[in-house]
Amino acid sequence: MTAFGKIAIIGLGLIGSSIAHAARRGLxxxxxxGFDASADVRTxxxxxxxxxxxxxxxxxxxxxxxxxxxxxxxxxxxAVAKEIAPHLKPGAILSDVxxxxxxxxxxxxxxVPDGVHFIPAHPIAGTEFSGPEAGFASLFDGRWAILTPxxxxxxxxxxxxxxFWQGLGSNVDVMDPxxxxxxxxxxxxxxxxxxxxxxxxxxxxxxxxxxxxxxxSAGGFRDFTRIAASDPTMWRDVFLNNREAVMDxxxxxxxxxxVLQRAIRDGDGDKxxxxxxxxxxxxxxxxxxxxxxxxxxxxxxxxx
Length: 304
Ligand code: NAP
Description:
Layout: E1 6-10, H1 14-25, E2 31-35, H2 39-48, E3 53-54, H3 58-62, E4 65-70, H4 77-84, E5 93-96, H5 102-108, E6 117-118, E7 121-124, E8 144-147, H6 155-167, E9 171-174, H7 177-204, H8 210-215, H9 221-228, H10 232-241, H11 243-266, H12 269-288
Parallel strand pairs: 1-2, 1-4, 2-3, 4-5, 5-6, 8-9
Antiparallel strand pairs: 7-8
Bound molecules: NADP nicotinamide-adenine-dinucleotide phosphate.
């Protein structure tokens, strides 16, 4: 028998299906049962076969599961928790993968029955693709997963969830939820906002045609388009649910942008050079930590 016996995954998109693939690869469950609100996704997931069974409702998916993971958009977590709460097994761990932690804790927390361990989590791994076909077993390999246990959380349960994410291939950090939301606001949420904005601006420019934008995209634009292709539902929910931290870092970002704007206007080459030199070091550090490829063109082949 594995640590959790049966694992239930609610939401069978990119992250849910990847967890199922990786749990199977790592022999982490006796049985993986999935559920998705969409009948179409359930049918596709069953055909792909990454779960041992796809349930017809959330309640039967979670019944007798030792670990239940919510892999739905952040804004849906509260409603799902409410629905499954009466069916959770005493002693089970309830977790999630939401990109925002404070809001999920506020939405899910009130529904968690006594005797169930609620331990929020967030894998810092993903792609711009969504849906059950997008998942793959190695998504979490060498990436970080952040657990944000609440004060007074059961230490043994936290350790068990940590071991599970390590079994999926991740490195694991434990963090305070509000600090998580601030860190992710600058490392993930703001970059997505900037990418959505620059791609939108390019699309709306009157004096440069869309054909030119696409043809000359290798000049830098292309790297923003990958991020700006990310799932609209997921990202709408991220910004609605991490408003404070995003506004905080957006304020700083606008101030720094104004400094660069002034340096360009004043022809202050030294300021620009110093700034660009400082930022280069960050990329070097990311590569050294194994979180990105140093290969030319980000390791992409020439067709991609
Ligand atoms: P996804 O591929 O769109 O999958 C989400 C799935 O959940 C969809 O099939 C969706 O069905 C289903 N769903 C929506 N509401 C539901 C409900 N009430 N009950 C059951 N299923 C429901 O999204 P994802 O990328 O896997 O993201 C899932 C979660 O992971 C989000 O909270 C996101 O913040 C987090 N996350 C994402 C990434 C990433 O890079 N994508 C990385 C880390 C964490 P419909 O399509 O029919 O709505």
